[in-house]
Design goal:
By secondary structure, this protein is an alpha/beta fold. The chain is built from 12 helices and 17 strands. Strands 11, 12, 13, 14, 15, 16 and 17 form a 7-stranded mixed beta sheet that branches. A 5-stranded mixed beta sheet has the order 1-2-3-4-5. Strands 6-7-8-9-10 form a 5-stranded mixed beta sheet. Helix 5 packs parallel to helix 7 and helix 6 (176-186) packs antiparallel against helix 7 (206-217).
């Protein structure tokens, strides 16, 4: 579902004080590597606490392996997480379990950890942890990104945003209201470092990362640009799309991106649909419906609360073009969508009339994006 050509990081953190705490585990496939790394850093010491912020298996998958290695370590998490833990593992005869409530603290020494519940960011049991001594927010999946970490690289906001956007929209995007609640909680904390369970540790210009999460979680477009998302069976719809792109650029709209939904990465297409203010949907009619790749694309948009955009429709059909109506029906529950006045219906192939309609659509879109 999510291509990760640059790999993926699974981050677990260690806090060494008078008491030692391990923050989360990793995917089971990397359990042995993680336990080895942990033993190297511990240098023979034994951890006192294993803190679980999120029970999704890419972070909690190695709990049982950890307990086997460190049976005297107490597991710290909330009641919902312990319920899920019991569904994944049989830990009935193992470590001590410490149940925390929202706002509870755990003192390690100088490091005093505060547990802050963040339900549905993006599972119901999620909590984040604030270390007041280091002014560190252990943010669970929030502020994560696709891609493996590169210790040789100095991370900047520009390096983070592209894969963080695709990650956020694809995985967390449905839960904007819950992310907004977490951001309000974080606004009351002094934060110098964000430690997510995916991606690099964030240490500079943190306002930029919080601002970006505010945009995404409030479903505001980042750019006035135009995404043209299309599917084409025999090339006629495709020809219409590239004629529209040419007209848009002729009209002065340069921030235009075209994506072929049948061939390109759908997760990137979805992320860009949220990114750009304007979305053009172009598809042939297929079995009195839309082409399957377009249906999947629209399903992903609506599942993630797509809203606050301008939408233009291009449909194609030889005897009964219905794609436009199907797309409208699929988007009917999306909030605050503005549909362009110009709607283009192609009957099999472009002709002089539909070419003029595409020109008028380009003019309308460039006006709305200016």
């Amino acid at each position: 579902q999510y291509p990760v050509p640059e790999g993926m990081s699974y981050n677990s953190y260690l806090i060494v004080d008078e008491k030692i705490a391990v923050m989360d585990t990793v995917d089971l496939h990397f359990a042995e590597e993680w336990l080895h790394n942990l033993s190297v850093v511990l240098k023979g010491k034994r951890p006192d606490y294993l803190i679980i912020q999120h029970m999704e298996p890419d972070h909690a998958g190695s709990i049982a392996r950890f307990v086997n290695a460190y049976p005297q370590t107490a597991i710290v998490t909330n009641e919902k997480a312990f319920t899920m833990m019991g569904q994944f593992f049989d830990l009935s005869n193992t470590a001590t379990k410490i149940v925390v409530e929202n706002g509870d603290t755990l003192t390690l020494g100088r490091h005093i950890l505060t547990f802050l519940f963040a339900p549905m960011v993006h599972w119901p049991e999620v909590m984040v942890t604030y270390d007041a001594f280091g002014q560190v927010l252990f943010s669970a999946d929030a502020f994560g990104k696709f891609g493996a970490n590169d210790a040789r690289k100095t991370w900047r906001f520009e390096d983070w945003i592209g894969e963080a956007r695709r990650y956020y929209i694809g995985i967390v995007g449905k839960y904007g209201a819950q992310v907004q609640s977490l951001l309000k909680t974080a606004a009351n904390l002094q934060i110098q470092k964000i430690c997510s369970t995916h991606g690099p540790i964030l240490t500079e210009n943190l306002d930029s990362y919080f601002r970006q999460y505010d945009i995404w979680s409030s479903y505001r477009p980042e750019s006035d640009g135009i995404l043209i998302a299309y599917a084409s069976m025999y090339g006629n719809t495709r020809r219409a799309v590239f004629l529209l792109e040419s007209e848009l650029r002729f009209h002065g709209c340069q921030d235009v991106l075209v994506t072929d939904l049948a061939r390109d990465d759908l997760s990137a297409a979805v992320a860009n649909a949220f990114r750009f203010k304007n979305l053009v949907l172009a598809t042939p009619t297929y079995n009195a419906d839309v082409f399957p790749a377009m249906r999947e694309f629209l399903t992903r948009l609506t599942q993630r609360n797509f809203q606050n955009h301008t939408v233009a429709l291009i449909e194609n059909g030889t005897w009964a073009p219905k794609a436009g109506q199907v797309m409208c029906d699929m988007l009917k529950n999306c909030k605050n969508l503005h549909f362009t006045k110009q709607h283009v219906t192609i009957l099999s192939a472009l002709n002089a009339v539909t070419k003029e309609e595409l020109r008028l659509l380009a003019d309308e879109l460039c006006f709305t994006s200016s």
